[in-house]
Amino acid sequence: MSRRRTTTSKGLAAARAKALDGRGQHQRWLDLTEVSGPFLTMPVLLEAWPQLDAVEKEERARLRARHADWQADTTAGRGEWVAYILRTLLGWGDALTLRQGEDDDLALDRLTLPVPEHDTRVRPDFALAEPGAPLGAEPDAESAAKRVRLLGLLLPNGTSPTARTGWDDWAATPADRLARLCRHHGVPLGLATDGRWWCLVWAPVGGVTTTAVFDAIEWGGTAERDVVRAFRSLLSRQRFFSYDEPETLVGLLKKSLDAGDDVTEALGVQVRQAVELLVDAIGRADARAMERGAPGLRAEGVSAGEVYRAAVAVMMRVVFLLFAEERGLLPADNPVYAQSYSARFLRDELKKRADAEGEDALDHTTSAWHRLIALFHAVHGGVDHPELHLPAYDGSIFDPRVYPWLEERSPLLPIDDRTVLHMLQSVQEVHVGTGRQREVRTLSFRALDVEQIGYVYEGLLSYGGERAVEPMVGLIGPGGSEHEVPLRELEALAAQSKDVRALAKKIHTKWKEPKPPASEAALAKALAPFKDAGEAEEARRLLQAASRDAALTDRLMPFFRIIRRDLRGLPVVIHSGALFVTESALRKNTGTHYTPRFLAEEVVRHALEPLVYEVGPLQTADEGEWVPKSADRILELKVADIAMGSAAFLVAACRYLADRLIEAWARKGDERAVAYRAGRAVDAVTAVDAELDPVVIEARREVIEHCLYGADVNPMAVEMAKLSLWLVSMDPSRPFTFLDDRMVAGDSLLGVANMDQIQGLHLKPMKQDDVWAAKARDSVNALTDERLAITAIKGVDLEALRRKRERLALVNEHAERLRLVGDLLTGAALGTCASGRVLWYEPEGGERMRDLFPYGAKMAAAVVEEGVEDDTEVVRVARETAREWLAAELPNDGLERTPLHWPLVFPEVFTERGGFDAIVGNPPFLGGKKLTGAMGEAYREYLVEFLAGGRRGSADLVAYFELRAHGLLNVRGQTGLIATNTLAQGDSREVSLDQLERSGVLIRRAVKSARWPSRSANLEYCAVWTSRERLGEGVECILGGAAVLHGISTSLNPGTRVTSWGEPLVCGRGIAFQGAIVLGDGFTLSEGEARAWIAKDKRYSDVLFPYLNGQDVNRNAHHGTDRWIINFHDWPIEKARQYPLAFSKVESDVKPECERKDPKSYAGLMDRWWQYWRRRGDLLNAVADLDRCIVITRHSKAVMPVVVPTGHVYSEATIVFASDDLALLAFLSSAPHYWWTIDRCSTLETRIRYTPTDVFETVVRPPLIIRLRTAGTRLDTRRRDLMLRRNIGLTDTYNLVHDETCQDADIIELRRMHEEIDKATIEAYGWLDLLDETGATESADPTHERVPLDHGFHSTDQGPRYTIGLLARTEIIDRLRQLNHQAYADEVFLGLHKKPAKHPDMPPPSQEALRKKAQGKMGKKGEVVDFDDGALFRPEGTIF
Fold it and tell me: Pfam families recorded for this chain (predicted)?
């Protein structure tokens, strides 16, 4: 044995290591498998199969023999070969039902799916089912399907499962047919085979079809052993029946699909890198052309920004074409197209060349670029060839006239093939993960939603092109947040640094926003000297290849490792004068995130559902009474997204309305629609299966042409939106849908929003000239007629498109003068907002103007006079004036302001319908404090004055989009908008939702706060659906998926029957106090030092005390502290000096800090700097006679009180209750107190800020009954034992309480204790109806509503909590508000408040208050004599 071991060859050892390499195994079989759609990812594969399942030696021999028999006669031997694979190799055995030849099979035939629209059927040939009784014994097809795990098709020899067949007029491939069958029966997996090709099909209902094709031709040999092992691992009987659901093949596929965000994010980064590379290549090609005598792009007036936009357009085209080719929208299976045009196959050809000749060889050829340009022109203008007919699809994004310098010049710019290879590779191979988890996935465009592709496009809007004025480099950094920096600045930092650590810190600090290149430690490591000469030489070689300048290479060498690589693997080095890509100012300040398809569709469905019914969800909750609209009425709807980006929400609206349109057609007997709906459920269609169906395409094109409108501030976004809509409505035989009249570029917030503003010549119209108003109306009506004529043009060919474009050009020409009026009015608004800082004067030395509207109206009237031509002086001056005013206080890097005058751009929407029927979307957000810097002070003032009606406040940008959206709706309009959750908070709520509610807008559905459902953003969002139409009787509002009784408030909480005001009560005073405000840590010292002072001199115990702060209360199991503090009480300085150690410390550590404080804010501080700023003498007096008191941390998620000893100094981070009554502890621990706190308090991040005056002094406390005291005693004892036993603090304890997965006995007991406390509190209030689950107990107050307490785990804005249900919270808060209102009314009546607040709904004084006043129980100035003692010792059974 030992001899054999020692003589083992290195080659054999390497072979063994390779065999044990799980990652290598998986990569080898994946490389040999043709996958289309979302498939198993490497991390999931390695977790499930660290090593592929083995095929035993005997089975390998049997496989070889069976394979040889099949190969001897593939027709005659196919049946036995397939049976062997399924029954034996995969081990299906008795779980397999297999058709014999073409014979009927009762069990399988009942699963046959008719496809009436194509006059055919799909009949399964085999099935894998749960072992047991024969499948044919089941009573019906539905029962049989529930037992089936996989359905299979046997195909004729030589049939590729993923190629179209000529069997019938149905263009679907065998794999697509099998997917249709699987979905129909709810069986997610299928297997189609002709013996050679084994196609695994994953067909989740509502999802995209995945296919993975295994080629069995070499299975008899050893070369593809990993493929056989993988096939067996995935489909073995054990994987179906011996694993829990998450570990089955379907579970593993779902787990892999959940990582789809990674693909989207990685694709976004790679597409941007491809644009960077193309921009650089254009710059390099331009330089080479100039060497041959060309004038160069700069001399031709082509800006760096235009080069960037052109590069983006190229990548948008490439992504679109790959999507269309893979989904069968372009004839990728046509040999002429594949060889001469196809983008997908071009990449394969270039890759083969690179593998054979080396990538460097591609630097010197340019044929691929010529082929790409030919493909673009073919898509735009068509191809008419004997063997290839490609219709002219048209489309502005493919129009060669947009960038003639790129694709119409002769010769073309020499873009090298290496660049084209990496451009194509960047969107076909995605690099996911980092380090050892990094993997390369072949991208399937079948697996990508249009929304994902749109998001990839949209990320490009955050960047722009520039020309370098000096040598620069691209630094390493997080994808999408890298910096481009001058080399000179790096060298300057290096010169100022003594070592690499100092340099790393400087680099980290200088370029830390928005994200630093790396951590300081990582930067220091990267800046360290090279390890050896070989490493240095390789660095020099790469830098020289990138810079082509020896001197520049020498300068770059010290920074080599912090310079990122481009897609070619070369360092990003930017020469002086070269083009490069960097983050633009346009969108870097605003939030844009990938909106998953399901979220966009949810928003759209709830917004549009009320509009597709004559009687629907707004009128009645009974769906049986809903009356759907006709097709014509659906096509009358007008739906907009006013910040559309890549049109994710318009795509969702297109899908939703098209489905409803098909339903309407079917109701009218349209044969195509009837056949389509008979074959599938409309709401469960998938991309491959249904989106190519002619009736779907037709419905979507109708919806796009009649119903959808969009706007975006960025013209590139408009092109992206068009592309997204073309992708979901592309007819391979027709040009793209005409969208130029529907998708426009402009600032949705800036401009005229209604005809009153045009007619009144003011954005706040007060009066109007009747003659001008009539003229304006007539002009807009004429524009409406002209635009309607565009839609009326029939035909789907280029001639129809030409006529539409001509008609639109005519409309725009006729609207130009009115739009100039709009520009003047909008400019006057901006200029007026800036007039306090910008000096405006009337022409020719006139007076200074502060209000520009009168002059603007005068100019507007002049330009619309009869006979005034475009080339007259008055029009020229008006245009210049409008342009100047619109640029008022525009930031230096700001985008030129382009107003959008809604009734002039889309006149038919406003003249015929009074506005849009619905507005949907996810508008950009930008914190209110950033608005001025990003957009200019005049712009922010414009938003306040002309959108928010003068309502000031630091509102988020999204709040103004809410206001604008509702200003564009008609009287029955609906909205569905997503925003940051701050929309429902503070200034943003007051500016938007509060004002909308006062104007009559109803919030009918909402999600208050939820995590963004993709990893592209770490934020909380809210969703708000509003209606201008009232709800019918019995129709409930929906909050967070649950019906609420009294509607939804503007803070997106359940509406209440009691108004939300609450006033501090006299009876609540003198119990709850904030701790001492010390000002600084100079007073503090360690416990050891304090005890040492006391040991030396016992007098120091007079001034040294434990110092308890919020962290001690929440994190320490004992609620103890190891910090002590010096406290000179309210002593004079002379007495303080008698404690020299303490006084010396305070004098040296505290006095200097006090001297630095603002004397206005801290008046009198220096007169008593040795004392606390706020010592809280009232607190000290209140606890003087107590041994214990109750404390809550002031900023806390838990809001949970504890009992602690007195004799401490309590910090300002604590709230102290001067009581040792454990009944009060119970009340403060109850759900009623917690939810009252949430209702009354503000938040700090995720923590609640507990303020005694807002919470404790406003709540009317119940009698502290024995049941409460018993519950409080038990809580105090048992919880303390639990925390000490586990050695955890209050926060960690309650994290376990609110964690549903924690089922430890002690935590369950703690939950039960809180449930008892809640019930004891409710009993103490006398609300016995809430405790009676039978509903027999009547409410004590007829206004009360009976609801279940519903203790359990609930999703709340504070996260998951074990608490009472939403309805109970709402009702209890209402009852507590009623108690506060009555108590405050009584106190005001009894004269206890000097300046009482006035509330219109304040109740009259109670009988008890009338009695007290009649008995004369009043002191001087309204002082209470004897009727209240602070609620601590009230008799049981009373409240007041």
Answer: Eco57I, MmeI_TRD
Residue 74's CB: how many other CB atoms inside 10 A? Answer: 15
Mark residue 63 as left, alpha or beta (left: phi above 0; alpha: psi -120 to 50; beta: remaining): alpha
Segment of 109-118, 382-391, 1277-1286 carrying the highest mean pLDDT = 1277-1286
Residue 214: phi and psi, rounded to 5, are: -105, 135
CA distance 399 to 403: 8
In this structure, which long-range contacts are made by residues 74-80, counting pairs with CB atoms below 8 Å and at least 24 apart in sequence?
74/157, 74/195, 74/196, 75/157, 78/157, 78/194, 78/195
- Residue 585 binned pLDDT confidence (cut-offs 50, 70, 90): low
> Residue type for 832, please?
T
pLDDT at residue 1288 tops 50: yes
Per the listing, tokens 């107990």 go with 1337
Encode 498-534 in three state secondary structure: CCHHHHHHHHHHHCCCCCCCCCHHHHHHHHCCCCCHH
d(CA 1334, CA 1337): 8
Q: How confident is the model at residue 796 (pLDDT cuts 50, 70, 90)?
A: confident
Closest CA to 753 of 470, 946, 589: 946
3-class secondary-structure state, position 82: helix
- Which DSSP string do the residues of 696-729 spell out, in sequence order? HHHHHHHHHHHTEEEEESSHHHHHHHHHHHHHTT
In the chain, the amino acid numbered 422 is: H
Is the per-residue pLDDT at 1002 higher than 60?
Answer: yes
- How many CB atoms lie under 10 A from the CB of residue 1263? 20
Question: How far apart, in Å, are the Cα atoms of 1179 and each of 1070, 1188, 1211, 1218?
Answer: 8, 13, 12, 7
Domain residue ranges of the chain, discontinuous segments joined by +:
19-257, 263-464, 475-570, 1072-1218, 1222-1440
Supply the DSSP string of 1298-1330, one letter for each residue: T-TT---HHHHHHHHHHHHHHHHHHHHHT-GGG
Note the pLDDT of residue 462: 81
Bond preceding residue 411 cis, omega within 30 of 0: yes
Whole-number percent of the chain with pLDDT over 90: 61
| Conformational region of residue 755, where left means phi above 0, alpha means psi within -120 to 50, and beta covers everything else | alpha
Higher pLDDT among residues 547 and 587, named by residue? 547
Return the SS3 of 152: strand
Q: How far apart are CA 348 and CA 354, in angstroms?
A: 10
Give the integer Cα–Cα distance in Å for 973 and 16. 70
Cβ atoms of 544 and 550 within 8 Å: the answer is yes
* pLDDT tier, 162 (very low <50, low <70, confident <90, very high otherwise): confident
The secondary structure of the chain in percent helix, strand, coil, rounded to multiples of 5, reads: 50, 15, 40
- CA 405 from centre of chain: 38
Q: Which residues contact 37 (CB under 8 A, 6 or more apart)?
A: 202, 208, 209, 210, 211, 444, 446, 447
313 has pLDDT over 90:
yes
3-state secondary structure of 604: helix
As a whole number of angstroms, the distance between CA 1301 and CA 1294 comes to: 13
Nearest Cα residue to 1325 out of 1371, 1291, 1273, 1356: 1371
Question: CA-CA distance, 718 to 588, in Å (whole number)?
Answer: 18
Cβ atoms of 1321 and 1262 within 8 Å: the answer is yes
pTM of the model: 0.78
Among candidate residues 871, 875, 841, the one with its CA nearest the CA of residue 855: 841
**Would you say 332 and 344 are in contact if contact means Cβ atoms under 8 Å apart?**
yes
Handedness of CA 37, 42, 48, 50 (dihedral sign): positive
Sheet architecture: strand order including 708-712: 743-745, 708-712, 639-641, 916-921, 969-980, 1020-1027, 1002-1011, 1037-1039, 1042-1044
CA distance 1102 to 1085: 15
Collapsing DSSP to helix, strand or coil, 274 comes out as helix
At 346 the three-state DSSP class reads helix
Residues 6+ apart with CB under 8 A from 291: none
